Amino acid sequence: MAMTHKKKWLLFAPAGLAVIGAGASMVHWAGALKDRRAPALQWVAAGTAALVVLNAGVSLFGRGVVEKVLHEVREKPTPGA
Fold first, then answer.
1. Residue 32, in any domain of the structure
2. What is the pTM of this model?
3. Average pLDDT per run of 10 along the chain, which is 81 residues long?
4. HSE of 34 in the Cβ direction (CA atoms, 13 Å)?
5. Nearest to residue 60, comparing CAs of 45, 68, 76?
6. Can you tell me where the transmembrane regions are (predicted)?
7. Which domain holds residue 9?
8. Angstrom distances, CA of residue 17 to CA of 13, 23, 67, 71
């Protein structure tokens, strides 16, 4: 059974927000490593991973927006129908 656009929207949008929050926290963590004078390789790797997670969250949330629009266009009944 295929997922409806509404179900996909309700999955992707909150997941995207959660992953964005995790990525933002990881960016702060990487910055703290740099402030504590951790080896460059350590904070650069942490920062890179943080940005990957943050951008994945933005992508998931964007997919949620797409699914919401598709739900509005394709699945909602038209008035007067």
1. yes
2. 0.87
3. 91 98 98 97 98 98 96 80 57
4. 12
5. 68
6. 40-61
7. 5-75
8. 6, 10, 15, 19
- CB proximity list for 16: less than 8 A, separation 6 or greater: 57, 58, 59, 60, 61, 62, 63, 64
Q: Is residue 23 part of a domain?
A: yes
Residue 53: CB atoms within 10 A of its CB come to 18
Does 81 fall in a domain?
Answer: no
Among all chains, which residue has been given the structure tokens 């997919």?
A: 63
Q: Indicate the number of domains in the chain.
A: 1
CA distances from 81 to 5, 23, 33, 73, 77 (A): 20, 44, 59, 14, 7
Q: Which amino acid is at 48?
A: T
**What's the maximum distance between 2 C-alpha atoms anywhere in the chain?**
65
Q: Look up residue 41 and give its two tokens.
A: 């390789």
